[in-house]
Amino acid sequence: MQALASPPALVFDGISGSNATGVSVFHRPSALATAGFASLALALFACSGEEGGSPKTPARTSSGSSSSSSSVVTPAMLSVFGALPADYWKGAKPSAALTDLGRALYYEGRLSKSGTISCNSCHQLDRFGVDGEKTSPGHDGTRGDRNSPTSLNAAGHFVQFWDGRAGTVEDQAKGPVLNPIEHGLESADQLVGILKGIPGYVQLFGQAFPGQADPITFDNFAIAVGAFERGLVTPSRFDDFVGGKKDALSYQEQMGLKAFFDTGCHTCHMGAQFGGQSYDKLGKVIPWPGEVKDLGRGTHTKNASENLLFKVPGLRNITKTGPYLHDGSVADLGEIVKLMAKHQLGKELAKSDIDAIVAFLGALEGRVDAAYTKKPSAP
Ligand code: HEC
Ligand code: HEC
């Protein structure tokens, strides 16, 4: 488990009074320590309402005096996730010229061997950033071995790809265009040559990188695509709830969040993305059923101790981004929730808990900015 560079922001504003019942819910010091989350753990204990009472089970809401949201979801639960940022730009907002260029490149089919494959072929922005396929066909129809993760909110992850082999969305963008079974271009020079031959791009790169003598470069291509991706953020009803709108989550969804938390899902799926902050082993407690051919991070690093480590995926928009796992092997969300509880945590979930967790995950379905993601006319 890899430690966070910085823990997610703690969020207590807007939910004031929600711990008024004094219900102490967060009692997972060992799990948190494993997560390398010491500073956050301290913060959590500081506000968990714990008074040295029984350190095991949370009081049951149903037996409490109130079934209002305040007795189901506590600030401690919300603080593990934190608020979704407004965007993933580092520092100042980039110019519209740069994100416009990035958007055009994201949809650009001419940057592929067949002239038809773009980022949007596999990460469709009108389909929550995925293609709905187990694995995706590239420029000649050949499929890779891995499922296409969503491009939405990906910029908020600590590394990119299932095995984390790229650090940032900018580094990542250089991969698919030269991947033989994705876009299938021969070289960075070929990409630059194609772009230089399209007058509209000469103009767009000039506007996006003012003052540069030779703005059409492979690096600038990646910077522009990355800048566009850093604006792909999808606030959801969960964020409305965090912001203080208490009726943004139904009672069942709140019970689902509580079950997610009580089961321990948050020990891996943490932070504002509900994941994307660490690697972990598939089949951590009980080996994953069936043969797992892909060794994940171990395939990339050739270090056997990293076999079966995958980036813990974010769960935002998860109801829309199936099929699931690095190989797309699980189609049903209820099924993957059940498998996760069993194999990652050694717990059998009751059907009612699975249903509640699935309901809660639905509240992570976000609002995709239609104007920002709209396909532009080709340059
Ligand atoms: C042929 C399908 C295909 C195309 C085209 C494609 N991708 Fe991907 N993308 C994938 C697959 C599959 C993965 C996961 C691969 C892996 O982890 O090894 C991925 C991973 C990613 C990720 C990492 C997300 C995460 O959560 O780790 C990002 C971001 C991304 N692609 C953006 C892009 C961009 C930008 C382009 C265009 C320059 C692009 N992709 C083109 C299939 C595709
Ligand atoms: C020990 C860490 C760990 C715990 C605990 C854990 N997960 Fe996961 N989860 C992962 C990893 C790693 C993956 C990706 C594995 C892969 O693709 O092979 C994953 C994948 C998923 C996926 C599929 C995501 C996608 O985009 O395909 C869902 C949904 C999910 N987990 C939900 C849950 C739920 C719900 C719980 C609690 C019952 C839970 N997880 C507990 C580590 C964990």
Protein architecture, described:
By secondary structure, the chain is an all-alpha fold. It folds into 2 domains: 167 residues, Cytochrome Bc1 Complex, Chain D, domain 2 (Orthogonal Bundle), CATH 1.10.760.10; 137 residues, Orthogonal Bundle (Cytochrome Bc1 Complex, Chain D, domain 2), CATH 1.10.760. 36% of the residues lie in helices and 2% in strands. The protein has 16 helices and 2 strands. The chain has a two-stranded antiparallel ribbon with strand order 1-2. Helix 5 packs antiparallel against helix 9, helix 12 packs across helix 15 and helix 14 crosses helix 15. The longest helix is centred in the C-terminal third of the chain and has 13 residues. The radius of gyration is 22 Å and the shape is globular. Bound molecules: heme C (2 copies).
Task: Draw up the topology in text.
Layout: H1 29-34, H2 38-46, H3 69-72, H4 75-81, H5 96-106, H6 119-122, H7 169-178, H8 188-196, H9 199-208, H10 218-229, H11 237-242, H12 251-263, E1 279-281, H13 297-301, E2 309-311, H14 333-345, H15 351-362, H16 370-373
Helix pairs in contact: 5-9, 5-10, 7-10, 12-15, 14-15
